[in-house]
Structure formats: C-alpha cells, structure tokens
UniProtKB/TrEMBL annotation:
Protein name: Alpha/beta hydrolase
Keyword terms of this UniProt record: Hydrolase
Keyword Glycoprotein included in the entry's annotation: no
Keyword Transmembrane carried by entry: no
Protein origin, superkingdom: Bacteria
Upper taxonomic lineage: Bacteria, Pseudomonadati, Pseudomonadota, Alphaproteobacteria, Hyphomicrobiales
Organism: Ancylobacter koreensis
C-alpha cells in the first residue's frame, strides 16, 4: 500500500499486492466507494498468482479530499499516475460502474497509447452515456440525477444506507438474501470519502459521453452486466457499448443486480479468470 502524488498535487492511495513480476490486474471502483469494494476479487486473483492493484479515486476512500478535478479526465489521469509509478505493463483493467467509465477513458487516452494494456473489462459500467438526450433516448432523465444530488446534500449518511439496502444489490427484490454486513460496508466506504467529490461525481458518471473512448479501444474487452441492474440499466449501457467496441464480448447475467461483483462474486470471479487467461 502507498500513495502517489499526481501532476496537480493530489495524493492517491493505492494497494499493490502479489508478485511484482506477475501479470497485473488493476481494479477501478464505483461511486461513491473505494478500492475495498474489490476485496473478493483481489483476494481471489492474488490466490491465482496475479499481481493485483487498486486505487481510491480522488476524493474517495483514503485519497486526498481535494476540491477540484472530480471528472473523468482527472480520474483517468490519476490512474495513469499510479500505473506509471508502478510501471505496470501487460495489465488487465477491470472497472465497475463509474470505474468502468474510468477504465474506458484511461485505456483510450493513456493505456493503449503507452502500450501498457492487455485487456479491459467493464462490469455494470456507465459508458457510453447514462443521461437521457436526444441522441440517447434510452438514458435516464436528468431529474433522476438531480434527485441523487438532492438526497446526498440533504442527508448523505442516510442516503448511503438507502442505496445499498435497496437497488444497488437488488436487496429490494422479493426473495433477495439481504446481507447487513454488505450494506454497512458500502456505507463505511462511502462515508470515508468527500461529500463534494461524491456530489460532483454524479455529473461525471451520468453526463460524460464516452462514445469516442469506446471506439478507440482495440484490446479485447469484456462487457459484463446484469439484466436486473437498477442503477445502470443495461439497455443504455452494455447493449450500446458492445456495438462501439472494436474487440468486445458481451456477457449478460439474468437477474443479477448492479453490485453483482459482491453478491455473485463466485460467478463473476470465474468468468473474469476465464477471460483473462483466454
């Protein structure tokens, strides 16, 4: 574990586990969480002999709670700072939700041009664009995201209980096996971060058009999405992303929720392993 300071002076926290000569897998977390959200995957792949790396996004987790730079360009540049600091090559980049957008921007802008990326994975990811526009009628109305901002500003602590207890993990579905520990861990991760970073991050994950990022990616890319994702609906995300990627594979999980990397880690981990080793 350690910190790297970016070009604009921001301290980014990262974890770096496993053999330094092994193929690296870099994990990118979702909003408003931290690298801890990848515990189940990092331990699994560590056990398979990989080098596993994950950082906390600026304003999130243990990274600096800076005032500025809460946008996809800075997110990707921060990842690049970690990757260059560790000199990671032949890396697999895996991103969940907002982290999927971060992966797309990083791979397109830094990773592929620098020759550092072998493969990419987008898990329940936000690209190409979440918000509804004339060109993206399948997206969610801006009022949805305004509602998220209002709830966060009014009572972030309660909001960060309601999201995981409800739609994030599908715990609001009939027959769901609810885990109080998972809910409280989501809350813990969220409350570690900055309210300002989280507030401004909503615009970043909902209004950033990543069509050109996806088109620019040429490495093999796996798109994984649950068809009962209540946070990032599959019709405006995975179904569109797969049409834009040059070398993409789509895997849809019937009934799986947005947070499937946690609720169905046993399934997701094996599919990730098969893709990475394939």
């Amino acid at each position: 574990m350690g910190y790297v300071t970016t070009k604009d002076g921001v301290e980014i926290f990262f974890k770096d586990w496993g053999p330094k000569d092994a193929q690296p897998i870099v994990f990118h977390h979702g909003w408003p969480l931290s690298s801890d959200d990848w515990d189940a995957q990092m331990l699994f792949f560590l056990g398979k002999g990989f080098r596993v790396v994950a950082s906390d996004r600026r304003g999130h987790g243990r990274s600096a709670q800076v005032s500025e730079g809460h946008d996809m360009d800075h997110y990707a540049a921060d990842v690049s700072a970690v990757v260059e600091h560790l000199d990671l090559k032949n890396a697999v980049h895996i991103g969940h939700s907002t982290g999927g957008g971060q992966v797309a921007r990083y791979v397109a802008k830094f990773g592929e041009p620098q020759g550092r990326v072998a493969k990419a994975v987008l898990v329940s990811a936000v690209p190409p664009l979440m918000v509804k526009t004339e060109a993206n009628p399948e997206g969610l109305a801006l009022e949805v995201f305004d509602g998220l901002r209002a709830a966060l500003a009014a009572n972030r602590a309660q909001f960060f209980l309601d999201v995981p207890a409800g739609p994030f993990y599908g715990f609001n579905r009939e027959g769901a096996q609810v885990s109080q520990g998972v809910i409280e861990n989501w809350w813990r991760q969220g409350m570690m971060g900055s309210a300002k970073a989280h507030y401004e991050g909503i615009k970043a994950f909902s209004e950033t058009d990543q069509t050109e990022d996806l088109k620019a990616i040429s490495v093999p890319t796996l798109v994984m999405h649950g068809d009962d994702d209540q946070i990032v609906p599959i019709v405006a995300s995975a179904h569109k992303s797969i049409k834009l990627l040059q070398n993409g594979t789509l895997k849809v999980y019937p009934g799986f929720p947005h947070g499937m990397l946690t609720t169905h880690a046993d399934v997701i981990n094996l599919d990730l392993l098969a893709f990475i080793e394939g």
